[in-house]
C-alpha cells in the first residue's frame, strides 16, 4: 500500500475490499432506519446491528474501539455523536442518528445517517436536508487535483449559508486498515493549514455534523456522548468515498 504524506493510497484490490465493507455498513444502516418508529427503545438498534454483523460474518468496527462499549453509535436530538444505545424510548418528532462501522477482509467500512421518528416539523426537515446536501457538495469536491480543504469549504459554505452551524470539535478522516487514518477532514476550512492535494487511491470518510444552533459541543459524564452545548438539534450524515481518476466514488452504498 503506497503512502504519500502519511496518507495511504489504496489499490484496486484494497478498494474492492473497502467497497464490500462499506456496502455491508450501508445495508445495516438501511435496516436500522427501517426499524425506526415511535415507542422503540434505542437498545433495540444495538441488538439489530450486532445481529446483522453476525449475519454478514463481519466484526463490528466500533465495539471496543478506544473502549467504546457498543457496536453502534446511536445519538438522539441534541446528541451529536457517540451516543449510547439504551432504554431511551423514541417519541414522535425525535431525530435519531446512527453511526456504524464494520471490519471486512481487514478493512473498515464507516457511514452514518440521521432518521426522523414519525412526523417532524419543517425546521427539522430543513436541518436534515441541508446536512445531506452539504455532504453531497463535499463529496463532489473529492476529486484528484483538488485540495482536501475544498471539501471542507464546500460543506461549511452550504451549511452556514442556510443559517446552521458545523461542529468543529469532530471531523472526518481517512480510513482503511484502521478506522481513523490520515488525513483529518474538518467540515470547515481551517486557517493557515498546509494544503493537501487529493490523489487517486485516497479513501475519505466525509461526515458533516450540523446543528440548528451554535457549533459548540460538550461531552457528557459517560465520557462519550457529545451534545450541543446549547442543546439545539443536530444531524449527522457520512459516506466513505474513494478519490479516483474518474472522480469521487461513494463506497458506502447498499447496492
Q: Work out the strand percent.
A: 25-35%
Radius of gyration: 17 Å
Strand order in the largest sheet? 10-9-11-16-17
Given helix and strand content, the structural type is alpha+beta
Uncertain spans = none
Helix content: 25-40%
Outline: globular
N/C terminus separation: 27 Å
SSE pattern, N- to C-terminal: EEHHEEEEEHHEEEEEEEEEE
Number of strands: 17
The helix count comes to: 4
For the biggest sheet, the summary is:
5 strands, antiparallel
Overall pLDDT score:
97
Brief summary:
This protein has four helices and 17 strands. The chain is of the alpha+beta class and 255 residues long.
List the helices and strands and how they pair.
Blueprint: E1 2-4, E2 7-9, H1 12-34, H2 43-56, E3 59-60, E4 72-76, E5 79-81, E6 95-104, E7 107-116, H3 122-140, H4 148-161, E8 165-166, E9 172-174, E10 181-185, E11 203-206, E12 209-211, E13 217-219, E14 226-228, E15 234-236, E16 239-244, E17 247-250
Antiparallel strand pairs: 1-2, 3-6, 4-6, 5-14, 6-7, 8-12, 9-10, 9-11, 11-16, 12-15, 13-14, 16-17
